[in-house]
């Protein structure tokens, strides 16, 4: 990466590195599952910039080779096509395993529920097995979805969740909950240094908007720039809290890199809550779009509110998000 003539995304990388300046990963070997996905590719790029060796594992189910194409000739980068729900051995010492591999878009839950269950249960077990064999630290990217239709806002890590096992979202929510249980089992039974991040809605460049992949922000942006109807599910009164990718990766790597956090679970998200309708209006305004709103049926089990309590992240990680929604959306439009 040539820092002297930075491309736009180099500035995003620098932002993350600034938030990690008290941590050090040089010469560590770090395995990132889902390394060519939206979050995984940013994580790989940042880790390479810290001087780490990075092994990126991806089966390109929802990740895309182009996300890591610009890294593929980096001397410390190894890219392997593999589905982590099947056993894998890197064959060399690994210091940290970051398990990010999973489809995450609710639009995919209907089409790929078995894959989603496998990558978060069998995949987590296989990734934990690698960490155990090489005595590595382990980061699991869990989700705010473990809280389901929550009853406490902002939601703290101590809230145990209200999830419909049998519903359309069950494949994701319950798989992530099982993934967390796997982590805690390896922590208790084998003394593995596991850390669990509960990620709240995150957005930024490299997110997919095509086909079944579209999360709300890339979808609305895509619709707005094409002056196509903006598809509001329900009345758009449901809320989400949107974390820009540079903030999210900083939080995740602080959780992975700081000492004395074995067995901890931490919410990583932005604590500012927005209705989906307000989000749509903001995107229409920022893009100067002529799009109209098109109200569609509300998908089943779509959580009514979602907002994280990030007290623990502030205290244990010395972290909080810095990028406001409007600024993050403008960056996304610029770098898309
Ligand atoms: N949403 C919407 N229109 C869309 C896509 C999503 O109104 O075209 C809403 C969806 O109902 C949910 C929120 O936006 O309440 C966030 O959806 P997303 O798919 O990003 O993920 P979720 O937070 O539900 O996991």
UniProtKB/TrEMBL annotation:
Its cofactor is NAD(+). CDD domains: UGD_SDR_e. Residues 30-269 form the NAD-dependent epimerase/dehydratase domain. One of its GO terms (cellular component) is cytoplasm. One of its GO terms (biological process) is D-xylose metabolic process. It is found in: Golgi apparatus membrane; Golgi apparatus, Golgi stack membrane. Transmembrane segments: none annotated. It is a single-pass type II membrane protein. The keyword Ligase does not apply. Keywords: Decarboxylase, Glycoprotein, Golgi apparatus, Lyase, Membrane, NAD, Signal-anchor, Transmembrane, Transmembrane helix. One of its GO terms (molecular function) is NAD+ binding. SUPFAM superfamilies: NAD(P)-binding Rossmann-fold domains (SSF51735). Pfam families: Epimerase. This is NAD-dependent epimerase/dehydratase. The lineage of its organism: Archaea, Methanobacteriati, Methanobacteriota, Stenosarchaea group, Methanomicrobia.
């Amino acid at each position: 990466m040539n820092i002297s003539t930075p491309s736009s995304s180099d500035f995003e990388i620098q932002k993350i590195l600034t938030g990690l300046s008290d941590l050090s990963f040089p010469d560590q070997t770090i395995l990132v599952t889902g390394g060519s996905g939206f979050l995984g590719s940013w994580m790989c790029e940042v880790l390479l910039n810290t001087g780490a060796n990075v092994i990126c594992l991806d089966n390109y189910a929802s990740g895309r080779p182009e996300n890591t194409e610009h890294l593929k000739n980096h001397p410390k980068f190894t890219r392997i096509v593999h589905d982590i729900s099947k056993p894998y051995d890197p064959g060399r010492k690994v210091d940290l395993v970051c398990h990010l591999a999973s489809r995450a878009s609710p639009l995919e839950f209907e089409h790929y529920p078995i894959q989603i269950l496998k990558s978060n249960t069998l995949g987590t077990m296989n990734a934990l097995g690698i960490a155990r064999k090489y005595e590595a630290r382990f980061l699991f990217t869990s989700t705010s979805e473990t809280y389901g239709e929550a009853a406490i806002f902002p939601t703290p890590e101590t809230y145990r969740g209200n999830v419909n096992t049998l519903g359309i979202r069950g494949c994701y929510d319950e798989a992530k909950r099982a993934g967390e249980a796997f982590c805690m089992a390896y922590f208790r039974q084998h003394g593995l240094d596991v850390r669990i991040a509960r990620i709240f809605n995150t957005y930024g460049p490299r997110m997919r908007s095509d086909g079944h992949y579209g999360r709300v922000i890339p979808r609305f942006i895509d619709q707005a720039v094409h002056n196509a109807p903006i598809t509001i599910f329900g009345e758009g009164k449901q809320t989400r809290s949107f974390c820009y990718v540079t903030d999210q990766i900083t939080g995740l790597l602080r959780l992975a890199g700081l000492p004395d956090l074995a067995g901890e679970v931490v919410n990583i998200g932005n604590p500012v809550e927005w209705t989906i309708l307000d989000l749509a209006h903001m995107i229409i305004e920022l893009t100067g779009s002529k799009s109209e709103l098109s109200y569609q049926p509300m998908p089943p089990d779509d959580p009514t509110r979602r907002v994280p309590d990030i007290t623990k992240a502030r205290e244990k990680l010395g972290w909080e998000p810095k990028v406001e929604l409007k600024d993050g959306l403008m960056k996304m439009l610029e770098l898309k």
